[in-house]
Design brief:
The complex is a heterodimer of chains A (54) and B (229).
Chain A: H1 3-10, H2 14-21, H3 30-40, H4 44-47
Helix pairs in contact in A: 1-2
Chain B: H1 7-38, E1 52-62, E2 83-91, H2 97-133, H3 140-178, E3 184-188, H4 199-226
Antiparallel strand pairs in B: 1-2, 1-3
The chains are: A mainly alpha (54), B mainly alpha (229).
Chain lengths: 54, 229
């Protein structure tokens, strides 16, 4: 599946998907996270990781 | 149906025009000052004799023996005139240097302060409208413009107040030492016209400062929202 197709299925813009992909997002809506997990058939933990910046 | 909003563009044009007009007025003013020094001065016979300018508002109090005031069909002493207010005029073309100088200062002070204020006001409003026309509403520059508008209005009032006070002291000194009035006492009326401040403008300046804080917080929310997917 291409990024363009994923963006359409998740109902966000390609630009916002790119922001997510490049770790520039400051916040993610639960609705977006749910849609991503549904389309990519994964768990939220597979998409999110905590990194201590200190 | 898309509704086009031409207001920012029209306002930008208006403020740009007014800003240009202030520049034009300033250039004319500077040229007239330069020309007044360069051109040969008129002879005493050619100059118009009088050009009255208002120098100040004064209160006149009357000495009791100098006038008679009586209401018809009433005994004497039933009405009294305590004091009246009027305009103290000076001839700006007077051969007396101090009188001519007072008149010039009154004109120059108001012109310079007002021109500077109006130019900065229209320039900031022009920049604000230009940004809004581009679709840029909550931004660092707009926040700065709105804050500077508020600060500038307050500074204008403070400068106007200080200039008015300084000029009033000059007039008071002139009245005290140079003017002899028979039958009346001349006293400078230290009212609001001496301090040309407007409560409306001060409140507007404070409102704009508060609005700049709204812009600042709106900008913070916008930045946070931009990177929320």
């Amino acid at each position: 599946m291409s990024l363009t197709e994923l963006a359409e299925r998740v109902d966000i813009t390609l630009a916002n998907l790119s922001i997510l992909k490049t770790n520039k997002a400051k916040a993610v809506r639960f609705s977006t996270l749910e849609a991503l997990c549904r389309e990519l058939k994964c768990q939220p933990g597979d998409l999110l990781e905590f990194v201590d910046k200190d | 149906m898309k509704i086009s909003n031409k207001l920012p563009g029209n306002l930008r044009f208006l403020f740009g025009f007014l800003r240009g007009l202030m520049i034009f007025c300033a250039v004319v003013f500077v040229l007239s000052v330069i020309l007044s020094f360069l051109l040969p001065s008129q002879t005493v016979a050619q100059r118009p004799l009088t050009s009255w300018d208002t120098l100040a508002e004064v209160t006149l109090t009357f000495e009791p023996v100098s006038y008679r005031l009586q209401a018809t069909k009433a005994p004497a002493g039933e009405v009294e005139l305590a004091k009246i207010r009027g305009k103290f005029l000076g001839n700006s073309r007077s051969a007396d240097a101090e009188i001519a100088s007072l008149s010039r200062w009154h004109f120059f002070l108001r012109l310079v302060v007002d021109l500077a204020f109006l130019y900065v006001l229209f320039d900031l409003l022009w920049r604000l409208c230009r940004n809004v026309e581009k679709g840029e509403v909550f931004s660092e520059s707009n926040t700065r413009y709105v804050r500077n508008l508020g600060l500038m209005i307050l500074v204008y009032q403070a400068v106007g107040c200080a200039a008015g006070f300084w000029y009033a002291r000059m007039i008071e000194g002139f009245l005290l030492h140079r003017v002899v009035a028979e039958g009346v006492k001349l006293k400078l009326h230290w009212g609001m016209e001496v301090f040309p401040v407007s409560l409306d403008l001060i409140v507007t300046g404070l409102l704009l400062l508060a609005l700049s804080e709204v812009f600042r917080q709106g900008l913070a929310l916008k930045k946070e929202n931009e990177l929320t997917v």
